[in-house]
Amino acid sequence: MNSPGRSLIRFWNSSIGKKLIVALTGLILLLFLLGHMTGNLLVFQGRDSINGYAEFLHTMLHGWGLWIARAVLLATFVLHIVTAILVTRENRVARDVPYVINRTKQVSLSAQMMIWTGLAIAAFVVIHLLHFTIRIDPELAAMKDPLDPERHDVYGMVIKGFQNPMALLIYIVAITLLCSHLSHGIASVFQTFGLRTRKTDRTIHYLGLALTILLWIGFLSIPLLVAIGVLHDGGAVNTSSLSSWLNSVAS
Ligand code: HEM
Questions:
Q1: Predicted local distance difference test score (pLDDT) of residue 229
Q2: Is a pLDDT exceeding 50 seen at residue 104?
Q3: Separation of 219 CA from ligand 1 center, angstroms?
């Protein structure tokens, strides 16, 4: 085998090589999440904004753009999961002394649950793709934009989709688990890249926390505001519904 091939295998076989792959793919997935959340928030600008954005995604580069992005995303996602499982297994084997209660106590709950929250996110992505991309519900699949019946009504689909209490529950649980995963994952990325020192530790902690809270609020604001009737299919945010909801919470 030629030397770049051998170096690649050596990199893959090393523990630090795999950790770097987990960190790098994790970072790419985090960027996707920030982009996806920002795109989703266009729902608050109304039907035309989010439907126009979805139409742009589906037609960019003559339709190839979305497929290229999907291929990159899928490869990144699979690589992240497979490598993370291998690193976890290697860590378990390398740990010659079994966990002692005192040691486990120092590791946060989100750190201990990384592999489980990760697998739950993978299951959620499958459900989410069936829900909004493949659209197994014929009612959601058939929705057409009343402003332009040629294009799919993503706005109406998202609102109708979250009026289902089971869907609402799944998204709340899954996005909360995703945020638990990220709260540890973001700090781990800095650690792997050697940027986490005593001096930077606090800043990294707060940066991770801020990004996690931003994603939790950004993603869940949509289903939660649909559930309380503030975001509805009238084409705009219903602020009178928001104030009556706030009044009922206050009283
Ligand atoms: C409440 C939160 C979310 C909403 C409202 C939402 C909305 C959507 C919509 C409408 C689509 C389909 C776009 C289209 O085909 O036109 C989509 C696709 C997708 N979403 Fe989400 N999403 C949410 C959360 C998430 C989360 C947390 C993840 C990842 C963990 C995620 C990953 C994806 C992926 C991978 C696609 C497929 C993109 C494609 O191949 O077309 N979404 N989302």
A1: 93
A2: no
A3: 10
Which tokens hold the place of 35? 């982009």
Distance 85 CA to ligand 1 centre (A): 24
In the chain, what percentage of residues exceed pLDDT 70? 88
> Is the CB of 133 inside a 6 Å radius of any atom of ligand 1?
yes
C-alpha to C-alpha distance for 80 and 24, rounded to whole angstroms: 9
Report in angstroms the alpha-carbon separations of 72 from 15, 36, 68.
24, 15, 6
CATH T-level assignment (fold) for domain 3-95+107-250? 3 helical TM bundles of succinate and fumarate reductases (1.20.1300)
Between 1 and 90, name the one with better pLDDT.
90
| pTM of the complete model | 0.89
Q: Is 43 in the pocket of ligand 1 (CB under 6 A)?
A: no
- Please give the pLDDT value at position 249: 56
- How many Å separate Cα 4 from the centre of its chain? 34
